[in-house]
Amino acid sequence: MSLVGKKAPVFNAKAVVNGNDFVENFSLEQFIGKKDVVFFFYPLDFTFVCPTELHAFQAKIDEFKKRDVEVVACSIDSEFSHWAWLNTEKNNGGIKGVKYPIVADLSKTISEAYGVLAGEYDLDEEGNSVFKGEPVAYRGLFLIDKNGVVRHELINDLPLGRSVDETLRMVDALHHYEEYGEVCPANWSEGQDAMKESAEGVASYLSNH
């Protein structure tokens, strides 16, 4: 089920912040009333597509900061695995230089709460708990507003990387709506005309485009 329009699931977990510092009880609740959050999941540390995404978010981190948006990543690896990957050079497949928080979801409960776990726990014929599917997170991304409500979500299958520019576009669309009360049409980007939430507003927009 989609989380859009609902409160983002609450969690407290271990994380690595600033590329090197361990945090015991990291929570997105610290940003409530202060910042929007882009919270994204990736399958595993030390893989192939994942570092391209993490570096891509870091490359645009100033754009997110300009918009007063916090970027937070999460995978089912431990905080120690995150730390090791963060201290591995880029040319060796590492993510050294990434500074935003990376949450450890070793228990997979956060991935499960956000609906991105690529499998599920079940019982076998003998009543033993088994995991069916891939015990990692899909490439889920959630834009959470200052009230802690999910306003946008995207979930890609494991091989499909995401667009950071599209994430920024969605942030801009949310901020435009919040500031001007105008809805954003297909392929809208910052600086373009938006529409009023009325039949007359839509007709006016379409007649000029």
Structure keywords:
27% helix, globular, alpha+beta, 2 domains, 209 residues, two-stranded antiparallel ribbon, seven-stranded mixed sheet, Glutaredoxin, Peroxiredoxin_AhpC-typ
Give, in spatial order, the strands making up the sheet with the most strands: 2-1-5-4-3-8-9
Q: Output the CATH homologous superfamily of the largest domain.
A: Glutaredoxin
* Number of E-state strands: 9
Low-confidence segments, given as residue ranges, are 198-203
**Distance between the first and last residues' Cα:** 35 Å
CATH C-level label of the largest domain: Alpha Beta
Mean pLDDT: 92
Indicate the proportion of strand residues: 25-35%
How would you describe this protein?
With 209 residues, this protein is of the alpha+beta class. It contains 6 helices and 9 strands; from the N terminus they run βββααβαβαββββαα. A 7-stranded mixed beta sheet has the order 2-1-5-4-3-8-9. The longest helix is centred in the C-terminal third of the chain and has 17 residues, at 164-180.
Give a short synopsis of this structure:
By secondary structure, this protein is α+β, with helices and mostly antiparallel strands. The protein is built from six helices and nine strands.
